[in-house]
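Quick illustration, no need to memorize.
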Amino acid sequence: MTLRGATRLREELKKLKGEDRPNVIKAIAEARAHGDLSENAEYHAAREQQSFIEGRINEIEHRLSNAEVIDVTKLSPSGRVVFGATIELEDQSGGAAVRYQLVGDDEADIKLGLLSVSSPIARALIGKSEGDVVDVATPGGTRSYEIVSVRYV
């Protein structure tokens, strides 16, 4: 996981523990004050929300404790595509240029240019260098991309 991804997960964990968890505990207490819990929709909704929050807290804590955090800026600039690198590609058939950063599965967001390291494109790019042309099997057929630049930012 990249340093930015770990920071984002830590911020989410802080919010869940510091804001969301106390708010749902208050909501449960208020719902209990209304009386009969068996027919109290507010109580059941608050308990469901609490379950979701606790599950997400456990999931984030587990991911952070098992993750190897990589600071991309400390990678040696070798020009090779590695985890965390930002790659500029040029589509050989259409000439359109795209830019992606290879990140962990949890961080991936194609709209932001964050490409999962386990995606077909990323797997084809890993280990290649600037100037290489890479063929990637996609649902629409094989596409060829030239690696224009590899940066570690």
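Strands lie at 86-91, 97-103, 114-116, 133-138, 141-151.
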